[in-house]
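#struct-queue
[09:14] JT: dropping the first one here, sequence first, then the structure tokens:
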Amino acid sequence: MRRAHELLRPRTYLEIGVETGATIRLANQETLVIGIDPAPELTGPPPRNVAIFKATSDQFFARRNVVQDFGGRPIDLAFIDGNHLFEFVLRDFINVERNAAPTSTILLHDCYPMDEVTAQRERTTAFSTGDSWKVVLCLKKYRPDLKIHTLASPPSGLTVVRGLDPASRKLESQLDALHKEFIDLPYSVLGEDKPAALNLVPGDWETARALLAL
């Protein structure tokens, strides 16, 4: 994440799922930063360039104009790491893309599950990715225009999405149908080639840098 900030030098950065603030503090000092979390657990006051909103992401986007909050600038870089259920991640993606630019980058955390047990909607283990991985399948099927690659960064991947289209309403216009199609999908749909299903690529910085420069 630090290297991504250093490479992209985003004017604006949005983070969904702040927790202790460890990743949000990696942003450059000149970047305008917004963090969204219903129950942030910051270990100290945020940097002066960071504004924390105590709300769910759905509440935030319903109540606020993020471009306006960024002084008229779109979201240049976003990190989605909030609620890890498919429908929440999908809505987060939709809301972020709508307020981004074609050159922006969206990063999705935990979209390469370790195994079936930790990839379920109902959490039964200390570590869990939920079913956020289904978003990759959804985007591949319904938004083939996007550039989607999942870095094999431990423990459960980081998906890089480029080639955004803020004017697209393909996902939003059929949101209920997408919920019905993907929420109940079993882990077995990943088949014997999970890497191919989730567009896995090496997790080294050279690969990441090339993807971020696309």
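[09:21] JT: and here's the second one, same format:
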Amino acid sequence: MRFTIGLCVAALLAAGSGAQDLSAQGSGNAAELTQKLNAQFTLTKTTADRSDIVTPGSVLVLHQDGLVMYSTAQQTSPLNIYRDGRIQPSAGNKIRAWGNMLRTTGSSSAEDVANIPQRKFVSGEKFWLTGITIQDDGLVLAVYSDPFNDVRYFGQLKFVFPKKSLPPTEDMLRLVSEVVSVQPADGAQGGASEAAAQPPQSQQPSQPPAAPLQAIVPPPPPPDQQPPAPKTIALGQTMDVVIATWGKPTTDIKLGSKEIFKYPDMKVTFVGGKVSNVE
């Protein structure tokens, strides 16, 4: 079974790498579209492991429901297709999910694949743009989110060319604007929930120096606080107790009567709904 899935994953990756980049072929329409996109969007640069942002770029605002992204802990991101006014997941996402599970856990069971960490974004939510690719059959935007419960997500959004033919540039830009737009620079400040930080305002003309301020007496130090009690976990505890103490796991794997919670530095196994092992 794993060998068959491996072949499917290899075929999918080969198909992706075989897609032609029209901008590299010097096509007039592709070159114009590339120029317009680069003028409209600024790419965000992330760390190599996709755990954080190195250089912030444009913040995109989503105008349609249903954009699926996987946790950045996965090797490959899911592909979403915009067609007929709707965002739909690509049929190849199942193969991508199988490949991710094989690489990260060595498992390819239907339950594990169904539980792959993912999030569906809806209209009004915001995220970063990390890549733009013009292929022979469509335009692909790579996107990346701010943390949700300490988990970042990434994905791809593809705008398919009608009959695999690049339409006029203005038509493509109009199609993209149906799904995403750049948040105005004065919209906010910080992460993808808000725009990048604004430059400082220019200083006003020089004015007479203000009178020196009176010395301010510092407030007394706050009373000593007791350190919080250390979090513990014990055999026999229920899932509700573990979640109340440690929060939701990054991964929840169900294997028949056994269920495994995975945290960044701990794995908890439940049998019959109670803790049976902690690693």
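[09:30] RK: nice, looked through the second one.
[09:31] RK: Residues 90 and 188 are 33 Å apart (CA to CA).
[09:31] JT: good to know. Residues 1-28, 195-205 have pLDDT under 50 and may be disordered.
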